């Protein structure tokens, strides 16, 4: 369905990074466990490594990063639609809670707002889902017709 939608819109995704992402997430839905596990490993490492010490950044950007990271990890599950998709997403949110709980042992802090941002990212992935991915692909592959 997704492939036909994109083809009917004339979107060509060959030999581009976007095309590779499209192939992994949408065309070959059997790879979603690998993509999700890789994302979980990255998030776990980033969440448990010693905190960055430097000048203060943009207030609240940490929560946006949590939302985006967990939403991106949830998106392949939503697009692949395995049996028990809601159970997988609940496990993903519980994994984020487990990471938050062990952070105090790694010179980090537990933050309920981080857990809320993680859940919001997962929920947005569920809400946006496959149609959202198609819309993003449309925007990223749109040809610019400019007249000078």
Q: What are the defining features of this structure?
A:
148 residues; 6 helices; 0% strand; VanZ-like; transmembrane helix; mainly alpha; membrane
Tell me what you see in this structure:
The chain has 148 residues and is an all-alpha fold. The protein has one domain (2-141). Helices cover 70% and strands 0% of the residues. The chain has 6 helices and no strands. The chain has helices at residues 2-8, 17-27, 32-48, 61-80, 85-102, 112-141. Helix 4 crosses helix 6. The longest helix is centred in the last third of the chain and has 30 residues, at 112-141. Residues 6-15 have low confidence and may be disordered.
Any chance you could write out the topology, listing elements then pairs?
Blueprint (H helix, E strand, L loop, with lengths): L1 H7 L8 H11 L4 H17 L12 H20 L4 H18 L9 H30 L7
Helix pairs in contact: 3-4, 4-5, 4-6, 5-6
């Amino acid at each position: 369905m997704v492939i036909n939608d994109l083809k009917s819109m004339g979107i060509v995704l060959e030999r581009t990074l976007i095309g590779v992402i499209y192939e992994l997430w949408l065309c070959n839905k059997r790879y979603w466990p690998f993509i999700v596990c890789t994302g979980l490993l990255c998030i776990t490492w980033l969440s448990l490594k010693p905190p960055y010490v430097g000048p203060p950044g943009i207030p609240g950007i940490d929560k946006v990063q949590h939302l985006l990271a967990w939403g991106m990890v949830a998106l392949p599950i939503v697009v692949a639609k395995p049996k028990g998709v809601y159970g997988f997403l609940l496990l993903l949110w519980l994994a984020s809670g487990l990471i938050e709980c062990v952070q105090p042992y790694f010179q980090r802090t537990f933050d309920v707002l981080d857990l809320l941002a993680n859940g919001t990212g997962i929920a947005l992935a569920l809400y946006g889902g496959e149609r959202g991915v198609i819309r993003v692909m449309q925007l990223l592959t749109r040809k610019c017709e400019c007249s000078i």
